[in-house]
Specification:
The complex is a heterodimer of chains A (about 250) and B (about 375). Chain A is an alpha/beta fold and about 250 residues long. Helix content of chain A is about 40%, strand content about 25%. In chain A, the strands form 2 sheets. In chain A, strands 6-7-8-3-9-10 form a 6-stranded mixed β-sheet, sandwiched between helices. In chain A, strand 4 and strand 5 form a beta hairpin. Chain A starts with a strand and ends with a helix. Chain B is mainly α. Helix content of chain B is about 70%, strand content about 5%. A two-stranded antiparallel sheet of chain B has the order 1-4. In chain B, strand 2 and strand 3 form a beta hairpin. In chain B, helix 3 crosses helix 9, helix 4 packs across helix 11 and helix 9 packs across helix 11. The chains are: A alpha/beta (about 250), B mainly alpha (about 375).
Chain lengths: ~250, ~375
């Protein structure tokens, strides 16, 4: 049984088939990239997994559990974290509190305990903080702890979004175009971090990406989509040489 | 300037970042405690209103400032608290019981208002809360067996543990102050724990909050309930302070005053609620003072610049006629809000932070420090 599995996943907006009977599986501990031209349905698949959209048909399994009907907030509790293509951070909060929201799925304290700020709440806060600091160290975010998001440059925000997802200690992480808007050095950093996430933290990565050099460097397998359908699946080199993929990109 | 060296995670958790805060808040508390011996009974009465308005301000800040859910219905929550107290008083229920019962009932109703509000945002939510307030106002006027209708209800003098506490006694002031301080401390505790961070997350991006495991619906309802419950508690004190309540006291005008409290105080910090409350309570006597004395002052100025007694008298009567125009107060409130939104969106507390920074950095302060930047446009797709 696969670690994560999508079966015949479809998302139709009226007559438009954004995702059309897509099936794929992710093995534990691998980095799987989804590529495809604009509008191929890559981000839609992510939004289906994190339940922003409801699939028209098809099922999603994670760790042999059917998660198709789970509410969106429970997806994170199961251990699936994600980042967004256009960065969805909490603008008017500090980096630290953004990252601490990432710890939300691990918070166990009740409202009345928090109102009194009992010792148990305080102890929990310190545990959360320690975890957050580990992520801050992993992604070199030390200079930004107390800064407001609204004053930070794009590249840093991108890393903070990744950090927030890592703070939830996910088993599977969905990265929606991790390198978009980043310069060459920042993209290099990102590729190292993605590989480290796999090797050091043991996180399975599902990634949507346009930058083929990044895809080639980090991916174990690649899926190519076009018009909501799977064109090809396999190693990065295989997929890039697949005639249908070449046709989709070059319009042959 | 003070540089804080953080050596422990505790440094980011504690309420007072350094000893300076303990000293200044200690002095403030001491001044507030000896206030009944220093101030006139009129100012003491105003101070009680400041405490009550500030408590409501904190409640509204939790909902509007931190969770991002606007409400123009808080006068209704205040009314429910006040009427619960007045009604239970008739059956000789002791103060602590009806105080907490009012908070619990208002919190419950707040949660019920929160449910339909789940599907509404922005201006639509504002309209929904206004409708709720109008419904409550109507119920108070019509449900005569409980609320005594438009004739209103007398509120008996507060009796706490067998001791009567008149509404202008220092004890009543201390009670209001204690409620305010406890509300602020509770709210601060909430805001530094997971629930408070979830509120802020919902305010800034519901999509991201959801994908981080925040049950957005549950936390919105929680925020509504907490905010309403605190307002209900304030309502009990409000009823005792006025000693008489009737439906026309809890109109839209009052809800707007509460919005003014947080808008003018500064909607990003609990300090704003207190500063805004001081502003709203003190502007009324100030305007009355202006209304009474301004015609004489302006006529006097005109006289010193060589106007004859007849002209001065004419000026005086013109200004007096202008000052007693109907609706002038509302217009002045409106102008003040517009000016604040245009020139100081961070409110009085934001202004105070700027003044503080100016002296801390002197002579290096730059005006651009607080300039709001909006460089990146956020995606609206997943809303």
């Amino acid at each position: 049984m696969s670690y994560f599995r999508a079966e015949n996943l479809s998302l139709h907006f009226g007559g438009l088939k954004a995702v059309d009977a897509v099936s794929f599986a992710v093995e534990k501990g691998e980095i799987l990239s989804i590529i495809g031209p604009n509008g191929a349905g890559k981000s839609s698949i992510f939004n289906l997994i994190s339940r922003i959209y409801r699939p028209t048909s098809g099922r999603i399994f994670f760790e042999d559990q059917d998660i198709t009907e789970e509410p969106p907030y429970d997806i994170a509790k199961l251990g699936i974290a994600r980042t967004f293509q256009n960065i969805e951070l909490f603008e008017n909060a500090t980096v630290l509190s953004n990252l601490l929201v990432g710890r939300h799925r691990h918070s166990t304290t009740q409202l009345w305990q928090e109102l009194l700020f009992l010792p148990s709440v305080r102890a929990n806060e310190k545990v959360h903080r320690r975890r957050v600091e580990q992520v801050i160290e992993f992604l070199d975010l030390e200079p930004y702890r107390d800064k407001l998001i609204s004053g930070l440059p794009y590249g840093v925000r991108k890393v903070i979004e990744l950090a927030r997802a890592l703070c939830s200690e996910p088993k599977l992480i969905l990265l929606d175009e991790p390198s978009s808007g980043l310069n060459v050095e920042e993209t290099d950093d990102m590729s190292f971090w993605i590989r480290d996430m796999k090797s050091e933290l043991g996180i399975t990565v599902l990634m949507v990406e346009h930058d083929m050099s990044l895809v080639n460097r980090v991916s174990d397998r690649v899926i190519a989509l076009n018009y909501g359908r799977v064109l090809a699946m396999g190693s990065p080199a295989e997929v890039q040489q697949h005639p249908d993929v070449v046709a989709a990109y070059l319009g042959a | 300037m003070r540089f804080l060296f953080k050596t422990d995670y505790e440094d980011d958790i504690r309420l007072f970042p350094h000893s300076g805060y303990i000293v200044s808040y200690g002095i403030l508390l001491a001044l507030l405690l000896i206030a009944p011996h220093m101030l006139s009974s009129y100012l003491m009465s105003q101070l009680v209103f400041v405490c009550i308005y500030a408590t409501v301000g904190v409640a509204l800040l939790i909902l509007t400032g931190f969770t991002g859910q606007a409400s123009l219905g808080h006068a209704a929550f205040l009314a429910i608290g006040a009427y619960t107290a007045a009604y239970l008083q008739k059956y000789n229920v002791p103060f602590p019981v009806y105080f907490l019962a009012a908070g619990a009932l208002t919190g419950l109703i707040g949660a019920m208002v929160g449910f339909p509000a789940l599907r509404l945002t922005g201006i639509y939510l504002v309209i929904a809360t206004i409708s709720f307030a109008l419904i409550v106002e109507e119920i108070l006027a019509r449900w005569e067996s409980v609320t005594n209708g438009n004739e209103g209800m007398r509120v008996k003098t507060l009796s706490l543990l067998g001791v009567t506490v008149p509404r202008d006694s220092p004890t009543f002031y201390y009670l209001c102050l204690a409620v305010l301080v406890l509300t602020i401390v509770g709210s601060l505790n909430l805001l530094r724990s997971p629930t408070g961070r979830a509120f802020v997350a919902i305010r800034d991006s519901e999509t991201a909050a959801r994908s981080m495991g925040v049950n957005v619906a549950l936390y919105k309802v929680k925020s509504f309930a907490i905010s309403a419950a605190i307002t209900g508690l304030a309502g009990v004190l409000f009823a005792h302070k006025l000693s008489f309540i009737s439906p026309e006291m809890f109109t839209l005008q009052l809800s707007i005053e509460f919005i003014i409290v947080i808008l003018i105080g500064g909607a990003f910090s609990l300090h704003g609620a207190v500063l805004g409350a001081i502003f709203i309570v003190m502007i009324d006597p100030f305007l009355t003072y202006l209304k009474d004395d301004m015609p004489g002052i302006i006529a006097g100025i005109a006289a010193t610049f060589g106007a004859g007694p007849a002209t001065a008298g004419h000026i005086k009567s013109t200004v007096a006629a202008f000052a007693s125009l109907n609706g002038l107060k509302g217009a002045i409130y409106g102008i003040i809000i517009v000016l604040f939104v245009l020139f100081e969106p961070l409110g009085l507390y934001g202004r105070w932070l700027k003044i503080k920074l100016f002296f801390q950095l002197f002579p290096l302060y730059k005006r651009a420090t607080f300039k709001r930047q909006k460089i990146y446009v956020k995606s609206e797709r997943n809303r």
